[in-house]
Amino acid sequence: MVVAACCAVGIAFSASGDLIGFDVSGTVYTGPGILDTSSRTWESGSTFELDGETITLTFGSHSTGSADADIDLFDQYYHNNGSGRFGVVLTGLDPLRTYDLVLYGAQSAVGGRGALFEIQEGDGGLHQQASTTGDQQSSFAEGVNYTRFTGLVPDTSSGDDRIRWTVENGPEGIGIFNGFEISSSAVIPEPTTCILSGLGLLMVLAAGRRGRRGPAV
């Protein structure tokens, strides 16, 4: 029982985040995001550092576009051209950590365009879905121009420790993707660490019990 309880407890870890704002004109969004205030612009195949890990960003086939927006993050975007979906993959993540992910999807200049995002995580290929309506870009609003996924576990089955998501059609028949933020939120103890910790606790308890016994008569 002690070992099982130990394995179920996540170890607290200082969170950090990177805001990746896609801007095909080359300017970089520097305003606040939901998780963090730093910003960079990336293309497929680029790498960035997160908590000592080198993360690679890869895109499937996509198109680009631009529109006026009150928040510059939403001015430039990638989209699926109204047909099918395109995938985004982060590889090189730490399999012993969980991740929080914020995805931005809005282009309100044409009556509101958002996206349906589907996350694939964990070795079992777990799927989660959330969408944005894209109706406004003057302030951040969950479900309108961004959506949040928390406690994601990297998929280790392919050997590259990944989290993958797809961008699909939103309410106006096109999938809009402006950028994302990712932060690590916890460290998952390795099974051997849990077992050793549990055994150590049992030994301490046993020693304490022996110490409380009176001298033999």
Large-scale geometry? elongated
Task: Give the strand content.
Answer: 35-45%
**Level-2 CATH architecture:** Sandwich
- The termini sit apart by 34 Å
Report the helical percentage.
10-25%
**Annotated CATH topology:** Jelly Rolls
Could you describe the largest sheet, including whether it forms a barrel? 6 strands, antiparallel
User: What is the strand tally?
Assistant: 13
Unreliable residue runs = 1-16
Physical arrangement of strands within the biggest beta sheet: 2-3-6-11-8-9
Explain what this protein looks like in three dimensions:
It contains two helices and 13 strands; from the N terminus they run H-E-E-E-E-E-E-E-E-E-E-E-E-E-H. It is elongated and about 70 Å long. The protein has 217 residues and is mainly beta. It has a six-stranded antiparallel β-sheet with strand order 2-3-6-11-8-9, with no helix packed on it. Strands 1-13-7-10 form a four-stranded antiparallel β-sheet, with no helix packed on it. A three-stranded antiparallel β-sheet has the order 4-5-12, with no helix packed on it. The model is unreliable at 1-16 (pLDDT under 50). It has a single domain (12-188), classed as Sandwich (Jelly Rolls), CATH 2.60.120. It has helices at residues 2-8, 191-212; strands at residues 11-21, 47-50, 53-59, 63-66, 76-79, 86-91, 97-104, 115-121, 126-132, 146-152, 163-169, 176-177, 179-187.
